[in-house]
Design a protein that fits this description.
4-stranded parallel sheet, 41% helix
Length: 101
């Protein structure tokens, strides 16, 4: 089971994306725990995740998050703005899986 955390400014806009990603994971037969949190809560979950995906609106956090997480072997990526805007759960899930390879 892989754990994917999405981070956005308030944790609201990504909740729909989480639902779409979960549906895509189920369709692939992939066991994944996917959840979204606000930027302020992200650090509370660092010990339980396999990958962190940042919403485009918080891409400025990428450097800071990579500094904290990559030494622990946790990859960090920014969700593609088009995939985010269209709520393309399949593509965002594929990006997360690619980061975890």
């Amino acid at each position: 089971m892989k754990t994917i955390m999405l981070v956005c400014s308030a944790g609201m806009s990504t909740s729909l994306l989480v639902t779409k990603m979960q549906k895509a994971a189920e369709a692939e037969g992939l066991e994944a725990n996917i959840f979204a949190v606000a930027e302020a809560e992200a650090a509370n979950h660092f010990d339980e995740i396999d990958v962190l995906m940042l919403g485009p609106q918080v891409r400025f956090l990428e450097g800071k998050m990579k500094e904290k997480l990559e030494p622990k072997g946790i990859p960090v990526g920014v969700i593609d703005m088009t995939d985010y805007g269209t709520m393309n759960g399949e593509k965002v899930l594929a990006s997360a899986k690619e980061l975890m390879k």
